[in-house]
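Sorry to interrupt, but I need a hand with the structure work. Leave the record below and I will have a look:
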Amino acid sequence: MMQQIASRFETEEGPEFPCVFAQNAFARGNILCLPVPFKDKGYDLKFFYDGLKDYLEDCLKWDGSVNTAQPLLVLFEPVAHLSSTSDYQELFISSMQYLIDHDPIPWVDGTPTAPEREFWSMCFQGQQIFVNVSHPQNLKRRSRNLCDCMVLVINPRERFDIVAGIHKKGFAMRQKIRENIDLYDDVPRSPLLGHYESGDLEWPQYMLPDDNETPPLRCPLKFRQVEEIG
């Protein structure tokens, strides 16, 4: 799987991988990987929980430089019976729900728990996070297909606000990445892509459909425990 991921960044022909931040992290050896094993009848989501917790604790030490930012790639071990888009949707939902159900820390102050509201963001361990879902059934949206398994690319949300926020340089960077997407993918950039600080919804951007006609995945996450804690 790691060879497949590396090939996305090492191509000598055709357009480069669209995300300049990912390119930079790969070139500097800053990409971290968390392989989640499949045991008996399901994935070891406790292992995912613990690994993400450790990662976010380390992120609190970040010095604010884009050159030291380390994205986390969560790789779910490929299994034969997991192959359709709906399979990957269910795995994504169950992994997020596990985090919500077991996280003892209250939802970040001021962050809604309704994904259909502006300024909602997934939260874990007292931090907002952004989750980019990659899976093999993204055949046309190649920038969301890193290898032969589902991959969650996770960053603390604040990093996007610092390096690509509501400022001239940030808007230019986002525009450049989206122009790169149009060159790299076999389908134009998704109309669901937006800007969190402008109030565009986050949830639909996590797991993009493979075309621009299919409606985004509706969010079935339950936040009861989060609301009780808060």
Q: What stands out?
A: The CA atoms of residues 106 and 226 lie 6 Å apart. Confidence is low (pLDDT under 50) at residues 225-230. Strands lie at 32-36, 38-39, 42-43, 72-76, 122-124, 127-134, 151-156. The chain has one domain: 2-229.
